[in-house]
Every structure is written in C-alpha cells, then in structure tokens.
Amino acid sequence: MTALPPVDRSLYELATQAISAAPSLQLSPTTFKSMVGLLLDFLLEQKSPAVIWVKLPKGKAWQTELDRFCQMAQLPHQIYQLQTQADLLEETPQPDKPPRSVSTPPLPPLPVKQSTDWTGDLMDVTVIGLPVSKAEPERVGNGKVCPLTLAAETQLKREYFLLAVSADFYGLILAHRPRLSRNNSNSSIESGASSELLSGQTGNLEEGLERKHPLLTLYSFDEVLLQSVLKGVNQAIACGESARSPEFIPFTWKQLQAQGLAQRLDPLLLTQLLTKQVQRQEDLWRSGAIDRQRAKQTAELQQENQQLLTLLQQKNEFMQNLGQELRTPLATMKTALSLLNSPSLKPPQRQKYMEMLSRECDRQKYLISSGLSLLQIENTVEESQEPLRLSEVVPGVVSTYQPLAEEKGVRLAYTVPEDLPPVACSLNWLRQIVINLLHNSIKFTPGGGQVWVRARQQSNQLLMEFRDTGVGIAPSELPRIFDRFYRARQSGDDSGVGLGLTIVQQLVTRSGGSINVKSKPGEGTMFMVVLPIHNHPSANLAEATQNGAVPGEGNLDL
C-alpha cells in the first residue's frame, strides 16, 4: 500500500478547529514579540531542559531575541527554527559567522530511547527526524539551533509560532498574519502608512502594509491542541527541503513523552508565567509612561527654546531699531549746532534752532528712557502683585495731568467707584499704564475736546476705559499701533518715539490682562484695559467699609 504524501496545512487553522481553542486576539507585532520574549525568559528560569519549535518573522530584531535566549541558557535546550527559502536568501552573513545551511543533510535513523540523558553536551534523541548528535547544529551557549527549511509555498508562510515542551510545562503562542483586502490596502496607502514593518526591514509596499496589520494570535496550554499543532509542524517540514532524506521520521507527542517530556502541566508554572506576564505588562506601561513624559518634556523644552529664540530675535530687532531712532535726533542736533555758529544768523532763526535742539534732546531722552523701560519689563521674570484698588491710583494720575489738559483746553474727568474689588497688578505698572494712556489721549485731543477715564467690574475682571474725542486712528493704522517705534501718520505729531503703547501692552499682558482699541478718524479713540481681580482672602469689599471709605464716584471737572 502506497503511503499518502504529507499535507502542508495552516497551523492557525488546525489550532482554531480544536475544541479547546480559545478566541484569537488581535495583537500588534510589538505585543507579539513581547510575548515571545516573555515565554523565552520563562523557559530560562526553569530547571528543566526544553525542546522548542519556533518560526519568527525575518529581521535582525527577531533573530536577536532568539540568539539572546541561546547565549543565556544555562541548561541544554534544543531549538528547531523553521524558515522559508526566501527567509534564508534574505539573510546577510556576518563576517565572523558562516551562513546557515539551506538544507538538512541525510541522516541515519536512530532508535528512540525511553529515557534522556541531559547531562552530556548533546542530546542523543531524534527530534523531527534530526538526530541532534549527528546534525551538528549551530552552537550558541547551551542553546542548539537546528535550521529546518520549509517549502517555498508553505502554508506556514504567513504564520509565526513558538512551541515549547519540557517535563513539567508545554505551551504554544501562535500568530497568523491575515491578508489585507484591496479596500484596506488602498485606505492605508492613501493615509500615508509608512511606519516600521513587522520584519523591521523596508520591503514591498503591499507586503509592508500587511505586516503592520494586527496579528491574529492564539495562546494555549492544552495538550490536545498542542498535539494537533505539532502534527502540522511535522507535515510542513515533511513537505520542505529538510524532508529529502529517506530516513526522515516525524517526532510525535508520544515520542516526546517517551523521552520524559510533556509529562504534565504544572499549575504552579502557569501561575508563575501569568505573574510574569502581568509584571511585564506593568513594566511596559511604566516604560511607556516615562517615554511619554520625556516626549512631553522634550516638546515643552523645544517650545521654550523656540520662544527664547524668538525673544532674542525681537531684542536684536529692537536694538537695531533703537539705534536707527537715536541717529535721527543726533543728526538734527548736529545740524542745528552747525547753523548756530553762523555769524549772519538772525535772532529769530537762532531761537528756532535752539528750540529744535531742546525738542530733539527731549526726544533723545524719551527714546533712551522708554527703551530702558521696555527692556526692564521684558527682563522681569515676575513682578510682585498685591491687592491694588483703582481708586487709589487713577485720581492721583488725573490730578497730575490736570495742568496739561487745562493748558490745551481739554476737559478731563474720571469715574472710578471706590467699592470696586482690587486688581492683581503692581503699583508701578498700574501707574505707568494709566500715565501712558492718559498722556496719549490728551496729546491727540485738540482744544475743546474731552478725555475721561471710567472703570467698572466685568465678571471676574475689571475694565478701564480711556476715551477721548481726538483725531482718531485710521482703520489701516489700528493693527500696528502697538508695534515698537510705530507712529501713526494721521496724528501729524512727530515728537513721540513710538514706544508708549508698546510698553502699555507689555505691562497689561504680563499682569494677566488684555488691551483693545476702538477708533474712528475725526471722532476719537477708546482704549479698553482688562485686568484680573486679585483673589487674596483679605481683599474684599468689607475692607473698604471698615476703613471708613464711602463707596461712590470721583469726578474731576476742569
């Protein structure tokens, strides 16, 4: 009777058809690699030698995991590594390591012993038709790797597994790489999927898209299921290059038990493996959390670095602009001084040049003082902010500008209720904000006009309005009025240095507030400053009553 030829079947199908098969899991290649490494580490810790059948994806990262196991093995483990012809052809030989043989040499049959002598250097048993003492396997430490070549079109081409059998333990982890449908493939291509592949090597795009797809994975310790899978392994090898020898004899589960292996599955070992799995997942989670924290810190540092670079660039531009602005009054003063030396200069002309010198000196002074103030503000890390009431600051500043407003014929007024809660701003900064905006309003308001300051509470903030009936600002000028050294052309006044509003914006922003402006040419301008209310426990409305203050409004009518 003629023996039927061996049938190469999918191990995944064999496993899923078993009665005891558990539902398969969809795992990423990274998780599957972690589980393979965990099972190898578990075998290293056991005091019993094991026989291992393994098929891993091609790639250095996967082979390194197996080589590490061989180097660390303290007991004589035997490893049978299944590979396809394509896997072997893609391997790059190392300078100090000869390439693995593609086929297994013919081997004479050896009897199967009832007991195993694990104390010698080699194990004198036949495993999958390969006598270990004759096959001259690749030696690395106590792990002996025997390569087995499968058929070119094997059903195991898209499958990876690790089957381990020792005296008190046996287990299987099996993964199947499903084919992607055309729709999924096109979707992945459109999304630009080009991350690392399962093998860790760049290959065909369609194959790469499949390899980054989740693996269908089974994890089992059932004896019946493992017997079925081992039978499928034998059949796959029988159809491949390693079965050319007529002496090839598959190694069955009964033969393993005859050698003292697969005797029983110790529940304690399963408990240890489960504990190790949980610990591994916890370590991975902690490592991932640390990596995410480092990535977050790196992103924050990069953002801070970019902000510092931007700040340095702004300061460089500021110093360049300041230098250019300082040249203008110096050139004017030099011209006026040279004209004053003319012997034919008449008294009215002399007076004109003297006024020009005085005006340019003042402008030079304002440039230097304003520039230094802006640099000091930008270099201030944090200004101490105490509870500060607007009613304690605004009236004093308005009184200071009363003579200037009266001289121009401008009506100046303020409305600041004394029962407003305190703001979170330093006294010097708040005074400078009010001074600059009030001075700006009076400056650009002609005689007969009005300037007034109003304050009111708006939710958890205070709003100050600086309104005037001056010349106004053109809509095209509004986006630039807070820029450094910018002076509106419509104002017709060139005595300013263009830093007052920039300083106000910096002070308001650093106090946690905001500033906006509304204006219409010929009708006036309104600056709106919003400052946060101070949340100090002692800063409440009862404090004003205890000090004898009567809530109300102050109005200075000039």
Query: What overall geometry do the principal axes of the alpha carbons give?
Result: elongated
Give the class-level CATH name of the largest domain: Alpha Beta
Mean pLDDT: 76
Number of helices: 16
Coarse structural class? alpha+beta
Strand-residue proportion: 15-25%
| Structural domains: how many | 2
Multimeric state of these chains? single chain
Query: Looking across the biggest beta sheet, what order are the strands in?
Result: 1-10-9-8-2-3-7-6
Sheet bearing the most strands, described? 8 strands, mixed
CATH architecture of the largest domain: 2-Layer Sandwich
Helix content estimate: 40-55%
Strands, count: 17
End-to-end distance? 126 Å
Structure, explained:
The chain is of the alpha+beta class. It folds into two domains: 11-178 and 213-265, 2-Layer Sandwich (Endonuclease, Chain A); 383-558, Histidine kinase-like ATPase, C-terminal domain (Heat Shock Protein 90, 2-Layer Sandwich). The protein is 43% helix and 16% strand. It contains 16 helices and 17 strands. It has helices spanning 11-17, 29-45, 60-72, 85-90, 132-135, 182-190, 205-211, 223-238, 253-258, 267-340, 347-379, 394-400, 402-408, 427-443, 500-510, 541-546, and strands at residues 25-27, 51-55, 77-83, 126-127, 130-131, 138-140, 143-149, 159-165, 170-176, 215-220, 387-388, 411-415, 423-424, 450-458, 461-468, 514-520, 524-532. Strands 1-10-9-8-2-3-7-6 form an eight-stranded mixed β-sheet, sandwiched between helices. A five-stranded mixed β-sheet has the order 12-14-15-17-16. Strand 2 (51-55), helix 3 (60-72) and strand 3 form a beta-alpha-beta unit. The longest helix has 74 residues, at 267-340. The protein is elongated and about 125 Å long. It starts with 10 loop residues before the first helix and ends in a 12-residue tail after the last helix.
